[in-house]
Amino acid sequence: MLTFEHLVQINDPRVPLIQPLTRMDIWHGLVLRAHHPTEFIMGLESCVIETQEEQSGQTLLTRVLDFGPFQVHDRVTLTPMHEVRVLAPATDRWPRSEATVTVEEPEEGAIFLRFTYELDLAEDSDDMDETTVEIRKQAYVAADLDTVKRIREIAAIRKAH
């Protein structure tokens, strides 16, 4: 099992050149990412949302992500203004994985995104190689920083209209 988590600070009062985002700006971007992941995930060719339902105040999506040579079926749970959880069951081409993005605001305006990943890897798998794990973690961080950058772009476009 590979577990990895990191924080991305969204608003930093010490960096006035970066436009602060509201919790609503961030949530709007995360919802867009769940519904239109091709705008956020490099190498993803298409996404089909098979079902969408509201349950106990949450939105539940089942999706098929098409990466060309393989597809991933996953389930997304959106807990409004707080968390997005994506669960992909194991297949012969993809290990069971779970990714969670949590919006944290320890004090008003100080917003962070906590990205948490769990990936079931076989103990005897070559994927457990230390270098490969480190590269995977770096890829997660890079993708998450790209997500935040894209959310900033979307927020800027929305505010300009």
Please give a structural write-up.
The chain is of the alpha+beta class. The chain contains two helices and seven strands; from the N terminus they run βαββββββα. The protein has helices at 23-35, 130-160; strands spanning 2-9, 46-55, 58-66, 71-79, 83-88, 97-107, 110-119. It has a seven-stranded antiparallel β-sheet with strand order 1-7-6-5-4-3-2, covered by helices on one side. Strand 2 and strand 3 form a beta hairpin. Helix 1 (23-35) crosses helix 2. The radius of gyration is 16 Å and the shape is globular. The N and C termini lie far apart (45 Å).
Keywords:
39% strand, 7 strands, 161 residues, 7-stranded antiparallel beta sheet, alpha+beta
Outline the secondary-structure elements.
Layout: E1 2-9, H1 23-35, E2 46-55, E3 58-66, E4 71-79, E5 83-88, E6 97-107, E7 110-119, H2 130-160
Antiparallel strand pairs: 1-7, 2-3, 3-4, 4-5, 5-6, 6-7
Helix pairs in contact: 1-2
